[in-house]
C-alpha cells in the first residue's frame, strides 16, 4: 500500500465526489490533511471512526460473513463514493470489512481531528445521514434482487456499473465497464462463478454485450435495463441454474 498526501485541487473527481462535498463543510481553519492510499486487488482497507474515506479510482468491495459463515460481497463503492460510514457514526460494524476489488484502487482519507469535528455544521451531519440512508436502501434492494432469476441479477448489475461509469464521466455515454473479478460479481449476486460466465455468454449471443469480462462493452443498454426492470425475456435453462440464495 502506498501513502501520499494530496489536495482536492487537480483531482480528476471534481464532480460527484462525496468526500469533496462533505469536506467543504469543515471550518476553513480545520487544516485538513487528505491522504491518498493505493491498494492492490484484495488488499484490506483499514476503516475507523476518526476518518472519512472515498474511492478515488478503482472499486472498493464491502464483505460481510453471512448466517452460514461464508464471506460474501454485500456492496461495491465506485469513484466518488464514501464508504465505511458505519464506523464514523459509531454504528455496530457487524463484521463488515472493506478491500480493494481491482488493482490500483486508490482511496482518499480525511482524518477527523476532534476539535474540527466539534465545529461541524448541521449540513455535514445531514450529508452523512443521507449517505447512510442510501446504503440502507441499496441493501434492501439488493436483498430483493438476489431472489430474482440469474439473468435479471446480471442485467441489474451491468446497469448499476453503467450508471456508476456515467457518473465518473459527467453523464457522457460510457459503454466499456470496469474490470472486476468473476468471483466478486458471483458473491455479490449470490450466483456461482460458472453461472456468471454462462449468463454473460448468453448476453453476448443476444448482442447486448461484447468482449471479455476485463473489458466488457455494453452494446444494448436498453435491453439490459428492460430485463433488470423485469420487462425482458427470460430463458428458464439459464435462469434456473447455479443460483445460491443466501
Secondary structure blueprint with pairings:
Blueprint: E1 2-6, H1 18-23, E2 34-39, E3 51-57, E4 60-65, E5 71-77, E6 82-83, H2 85-88, E7 97-100, E8 105-111, H3 114-117, H4 122-145, H5 150-168, H6 182-189, H7 193-205, E9 209-210, E10 217-218, H8 221-228, H9 236-240
Antiparallel strand pairs: 1-2, 2-8, 3-6, 3-8, 4-5, 4-7, 9-10
Helix pairs in contact: 5-8, 6-7
Short description:
This protein is α+β, with helices and mostly antiparallel strands and 246 residues long. It has helices spanning 18-23, 85-88, 114-117, 122-145, 150-168, 182-189, 193-205, 221-228, 236-240; strands at 2-6, 34-39, 51-57, 60-65, 71-77, 82-83, 97-100, 105-111, 209-210, 217-218.
Please tell me the CATH architecture of the largest domain by its name.
Answer: Sandwich
Mean pLDDT: 78
Query: What order do the SSEs take from the amino end to the carboxyl end, as H and E?
Result: EHEEEEEHEEHHHHHEEHH
Enter the CATH topology name of the largest domain: Jelly Rolls
Strand order of the largest sheet: 1-2-8-3-6
Gyration radius (Cα, Å) is: 19 Å
Structural class by helix and strand composition: alpha+beta
Give a count of the beta strands, DSSP E runs of length 2 or more: 10
Question: In the CATH hierarchy, what is the class of the largest domain?
Answer: Mainly Beta
How many individual helices? 9
Weakly predicted, low-confidence segments:
236-246
Please give the largest β-sheet: 5 strands, antiparallel
Q: How far is the N terminus from the C terminus? A: 33 Å
The share of residues in helices is 25-40%
Strand content: 15-25%
**Dominant shape:** globular
Tally of discrete structural domains: 2
